Amino acid sequence: MEFTDRVLKCIDCGAEFIFTAGEQLFFHDKQFTNDPKRCKQCKAKRASSSGRARTETRTTCSECGTATTVPFKPTQGRPVLCRSCFQKQPGKASASGAKPEILYPATAALSPTREPGGGGLDPS
Question: Are 82 and 61 in contact (CB under 8 A)?
């Protein structure tokens, strides 16, 4: 397939920009179906400002009374915890959102007959 340079118009600033044959080949190889809509300058500006600003709210921890900031606006009547108090709570997910890993004593891990759930090897 033969590609030739094309002139496109930026939807942000209205300036014309060239969609080169090499860029078209790249789009074709990646199976992109739409032509670019922004010039390189507007695309760079949009990419640098795309990080949404998180609202940080100053508040006091309901558990320990320490001044802290939280990435949300607290709701009336609901407790707000600092990071350390939140992580101390049993049964809560870790900060990464993953479920907490269950750790067993080293002796239980070494003994096949003492595996949790009774799924160990039968010694007889």
Answer: yes
Q: Is the pLDDT of residue 104 over 60?
A: no
Buried b (16+ CB within 10 A) or exposed e, 75-93: eeeeebbbeebbeeeeeee
Average pLDDT, the chain: 79
Domain boundaries, the chain: 6-48, 57-88
Q: Which two tokens stand for residue 75?
A: 């709701």
Q: Do 41 and 13 meet the contact criterion of CB atoms below 8 Å apart?
A: yes
Assigned token pair, 55: 């609202």
Task: Record the pTM.
Answer: 0.41
Query: In terms of Cα–Cα distance, which of 69, 88, 92 is closest to 80?
Result: 69
Tokens read off for 10: 């930026």
Using CA atoms, how far apart are residues 105 and 124, in angstroms rounded to an integer? 24
DSSP-assigned beta bridge partners for residue 8: 17
Residues 6+ apart with CB under 8 A from 4: 21
- Using CA atoms, how far apart are residues 26 and 107, in angstroms rounded to an integer? 57
Rounded distance between C-alpha atoms, residue 64 and residue 83, angstroms: 11
